[in-house]
């Protein structure tokens, strides 16, 4: 049986990863921030763990509380959008910190704790980034802080891949997905996005480590 850890699994894309992996008979460890969400994860059949990227020491607790010593798949999903506005307004420090801590710092604190366990299984470490983090694709500054956070996450993933040569590190663009963040007008269902990302993940090999992919299998420009 294969083992996964989904970080940021209370709702949306993370919750769907849990659902699809449980249906495929994986052992699934999954994080949330509230007692109610942890209890829902437990009811679904996952092993719940508390993690809040904005709390000091939360990543270390996650590392100590996770029983699995080898992980075939880890997905860092936790993310927040912050402000819609672009470069015409300066971000509030609190917004900047919230977005950067959730989208970047949480991932960077998780990597040294989890990557050796991914290497132990010769597994995959996926990071849900965004097309909005692509410098090559940017055509506006809308969601300025979010864009900067996902570009920073992309660099964190690409550069970390050199330090963990037995794990496959991939930045993943999930598409524009119908979730609380993506909104009801998004063209892609959460089911299709996650099924696509799991298919891509199953086809990745070590030579793909350090790359940026989309849920539909295409390589994405940095
Ligand atoms: N939906 C899209 O169109 C889209 C497009 C590109 C990229 N993405 C990325 O995909 C990922 C998932 O997005 P989604 O659409 O599923 O969004 P969502 O429905 O808003 O879910 C966000 C998830 O992140 C968790 N989270 C937020 N702040 C956190 C923190 N400080 N510590 C730990 N977990 C935290 C949330 O937990 P709580 O329930 O506790 O808040 C929730 O589980 C994000 O990284 C997002 O940037 C989404």
Number of domains: 1
| Estimated helix fraction | 40-55%
CATH topology: Rossmann fold
Q: What proportion of the residues form beta strands (DSSP E)?
A: 15-25%
Main sheet?
7 strands, parallel
Order of helices and strands: EHEHEHEHEHEHE
Overall number of strands: 7
> What does the average pLDDT come to?
97
Shape: globular
**Neighbour order of strands in the largest sheet:** 3-2-1-4-5-6-7
- Which structural class is indicated by helix and strand composition? alpha/beta
Poorly predicted runs are none
Name the CATH architecture.
3-Layer(aba) Sandwich
The CATH superfamily bears the name NAD(P)-binding Rossmann-like Domain
- CATH C-level name: Alpha Beta
> How many whole angstroms does the radius of gyration measure?
16 Å
Distance between the termini: 34 Å
**Any ligands, ions or cofactors bound here, and which?**
NADP nicotinamide-adenine-dinucleotide phosphate
- Count of helix runs: 6
What would a concise description of this structure say?
Helices cover 40% and strands 15% of the residues.
Protein described:
- The chain has six helices and seven strands, in the order βαβαβαβαβαβαβ.
- The chain is globular, with a radius of gyration of 16 Å.
- It has one domain: Rossmann fold (3-Layer(aba) Sandwich).
- Strands 3-2-1-4-5-6-7 form a seven-stranded parallel beta sheet, with helices on both faces.
- Helix 6 (190-203) links the parallel strand 6 (168-173) and strand 7.
- The chain is an alpha/beta fold and 222 residues long.
- Bound molecules: NADP nicotinamide-adenine-dinucleotide phosphate (NAP).
